[in-house]
Design goal:
- The strands form 5 sheets. Strands 1-19-16-21-14-13-12 form a 7-stranded antiparallel β-sheet, with no helix packed on it.
- Helix content is about 5%, strand content about 40%.
- The longest helix is centred in the C-terminal third of the chain and has 14 residues.
- By secondary structure, the chain is mainly beta.
- It is built from 1 helix and 25 strands.
- Among the domains are: about 130 residues, Jelly Rolls, CATH 2.60.120.10; about 110 residues, Sandwich (Jelly Rolls).
């Protein structure tokens, strides 16, 4: 059923762009990276148990041997760094991530879990990738998404949220032939998936007219499922086709992996027309429609605000860094947990799922 305010469109695809290291995004999204690292077995320090020669340690994005150290020098990952003016949403498909931040929050999460951090007026955090298995490879796969904040929310208090895979809504749809499509709903409402999880309170996703959706889609070979029209007028939708051989959207056949801006105001039948499982990430939202000024980890509306962010960070360190090192890791146990600012803590089982449908 099409949105009553949207004209019927013959082609579902408004634009198509190839997928590179950083995926193109639409307002209100700023950034989307797909990290897929085939890390080897770990050593006693939870880093790679192989020589690191030939890598630019401290800034290694080489993909040498199928993985990178990024800004880590012992453990791969991203040691403490600041953010202001937007949110990070991290969906982990394989492996574990260790989080620490200037609020005093800490977490180890993975295998379908999602972390959502509102940077607001300023936060420091680290994201390290500990290699806990010393006898087997330690594959890691994740999406990191940056969601903008409107001007009125850029200086709100920072906020740390964990969405554990056990609580994230999912829809499993079987078509007439019994072939399954699984949709995991990190943000937004999808009929049949159950009640959506509340986003952080100051997020654009928490605004009634923001119409933000973050979904992952997994279609078995031959599976057919109708992607429902977005609820809001003016919403834009990007569908990232990143796994599988071919996907039909309406009457359009897509045989190469790409970022596809899809007409948001209509239903579109999706069909996996290949022999392999198809996977997609969907990012949707009504544009914020404000100027964007960005300098590295700071995203504001004007260059003057960027300069102020830099000055504030030099002066306050956004609350300081309560950890002994810039790259803390949380032990050698494959546990999932979160410690929130204050006393609250979550402890969850780790059953090491293999690339779950959750993210």
């Amino acid at each position: 059923m099409s949105s009553p305010t949207a004209p019927v469109t013959a082609s579902p695809i408004l634009q198509s762009q190839p997928l590179g290291p950083l995926w193109p995004t639409l307002d209100p999204f700023l950034f989307c990276a797909h990290h897929d690292d085939a890390y080897p077995a770990g050593n006693a320090e939870r880093g790679p148990a192989v020589p690191l020669e030939g890598r630019q340690i401290g800034s290694d994005f080489s993909r040498k041997d199928g993985w990178s150290m990024y800004h880590g020098d012992v453990v791969p990952g991203f040691p403490g760094h600041p953010h202001r003016g937007f949110e990070t949403v991290t969906l982990v498909r394989k492996g574990l991530i260790d989080h620490a931040d200037s609020l005093g929050a800490a977490a180890r999460f993975g295998g379908g879990d999602v972390q959502w951090v509102t940077a607001g007026r300023g936060i420091q955090h680290s994201e390290m990738f500990p290699l806990l298995d010393t006898t087997q490879p330690n594959p890691l796969e994740l999406f990191q998404i940056w969601l903008n904040l409107p001007a009125q929310s850029k200086m709100v208090a920072p906020h740390f949220t964990m969405l554990w895979r056990e609580s994230i809504p999912r829809l499993v749809h079987r078509d007439d032939a019994g072939r399954a499509t699984t949709v995991t709903v990190v943000a937004g409402a999808l009929p049949g998936a159950g009640a959506p999880l509340p986003p952080p309170p100051e997020s654009w996703a928490a605004q009634a007219n923001g119409d933000v959706a973050i979904w992952t889609l997994k279609l078995e070979p031959g599976a057919r499922w109708t992607l429902p029209a977005a609820a809001g007028a003016g919403t834009r939708r990007m569908l990232y086709f990143f796994a599988g051989a071919s996907l039909r959207i309406g009457e359009a056949e897509q045989r190469s992996h790409a970022a596809l801006e899809v007409v948001a105001g209509q239903d579109w039948l999706l069909e996996n027309t290949g022999a392999d499982t198809v996977e997609c990430l969907l990012l949707q939202g009504r544009p914020i429609g404000e100027p964007v000024a960005q300098y590295g980890p700071f995203v504001m509306n004007t260059q003057q605000e960027i300069m102020q962010a830099m000055q504030d960070y030099r002066r306050t360190q956004f609350g300081g860094w309560p950890w002994e090192s810039s790259d803390p890791v949380h032990g050698s146990e494959a546990r999932r947990f979160a410690r929130y600012p204050g006393a609250a803590q979550d402890e969850l089982p780790d059953d090491r799922p293999e690339a779950p449908a959750a993210a």
